[in-house]
Amino acid sequence: MAKEEYNISELSSEFNITPRALRFYEDKGLIKPIRNGQNRIYSRKDHARIIWILRGKRVGFSLSEISEVLNLYYQDNGLKKQRLATIKACDEKISALEITKENINETIRELNALKDSVEDLKKNIPLKE
Amino acid sequence: MAKEEYNISELSSEFNITPRALRFYEDKGLIKPIRNGQNRIYSRKDHARIIWILRGKRVGFSLSEISEVLNLYYQDNGLKKQRLATIKACDEKISALEITKENINETIRELNALKDSVEDLKKNIPLKE
DNA sequence: TTTTTACTTGACCTTAACGTAAACGTAAAC
DNA sequence: GTTTACGTTTACGTTAAGGTCAAGTAAAAA
């Protein structure tokens, strides 16, 4: 029984982000809460989009890149051209992420090499304190 | 026979970055070219550091994080405390990178799911155009 | 009925990582 | 001997992603 509606403080505490950030994402068009009087009410769709936003940020996407992807999700994909464009956009993001993964692996190898060199030192230099 | 010295335009064209960026990294203490008169001369060590800087940027490190790691490399590791600190710092970076990798994998799965949903649509909706 | 409490809208502030333009030095090329 | 090419410093500008007030509304609690 998932919630259908959320107010700003519920979301900001759930996701551990500030209300300011949520309003900022709204300004940028990433979410579109409706209003109850002056107050924002976030839907399940907004909730799902916020999950995407935060995951996107964790992998290094900018808000405008995230916006592009979100637009892919929620758009009409009736036309072939549209669908092909969506698939292409996904493939591009995926290969960018694969490249980042390779860079991460390279960096991890470098860091391990650094560790090894320091640990080798341990063998050659008498331990001091 | 690798080069021993570089000037700013050689490096900026080799790495495809601007001279401004190289001067900026110097301001931040990431590289320390010596001078020939007023002109900068970059050593092989600077060259190696730039490789690290750019790789670090590709995996989402900030310049100050990169600076930390570079300092680990080129510092005196004679003392046990120092070496343990270096190893700990490496391990922390490595686990952060592993987490990022997991987030990337999650994101790739999401993007593939999006692709699938669009491709399923292809089966259900007659192709137009 | 007055206080809280939660929420709102501006509006300006901040940090990172350079970009960009001005003004100047110097050495090679013409 | 003066352009041209390449380099320098100084300094202000820019974008992204919010942070941080200030001032006001509105409902709920005391």
Mean pLDDT of chain A: 92
Number of strands of chain A: 3
The CATH topology of the largest domain in chain A is what?
A: Multidrug-efflux Transporter Regulator, Chain: A, Domain 2
- Measured by DSSP, the beta-strand proportion of chain A falls in 5-15%
Provide the structure class of chain A. mainly alpha
> How many structural domains of chain A?
2
Q: H/E element string of chain A?
A: EHHEEHHH
Largest beta-sheet characterization of chain A? 3 strands, antiparallel
Largest interface: A-B, 43 and 43 residues
Unreliable spans of chain A are: none
Instruction: Give the number of helices of chain A.
Output: 5
Assembly of the depicted chains? homodimer
- General shape of chain A: flat
Provide the CATH top-level class of the largest domain in chain A.
Mainly Alpha
CATH architecture of the largest domain in chain A: Orthogonal Bundle
Query: End-to-end span of chain A in angstroms?
Result: 59 Å
Radius of gyration of chain A: 22 Å
Instruction: Assign a percent range to the helix content of chain A.
Output: 55-70%
Q: Can you list the strand order of the major beta sheet of chain A? A: 1-3-2
Question: Topology, pairings included?
Answer:
2 copies of one chain form a homodimer.
Chain A: E1 5-6, H1 8-15, H2 19-27, E2 34-36, E3 39-43, H3 44-58, H4 63-73, H5 80-124
Helix pairs in contact in A: 3-4
Chain A binds a DNA duplex (30 and 30 nucleotides) through helix 2.
Describe this structure in words.
The structure is a homodimer of 129-residue chains. By secondary structure, chain A is mainly alpha-helical. Chain A is 68% helix and 8% strand. In chain A, strand 2 and strand 3 form a beta hairpin. The longest helix of chain A has 45 residues, at 80-124. The structure holds a DNA duplex (30 and 30 nucleotides).
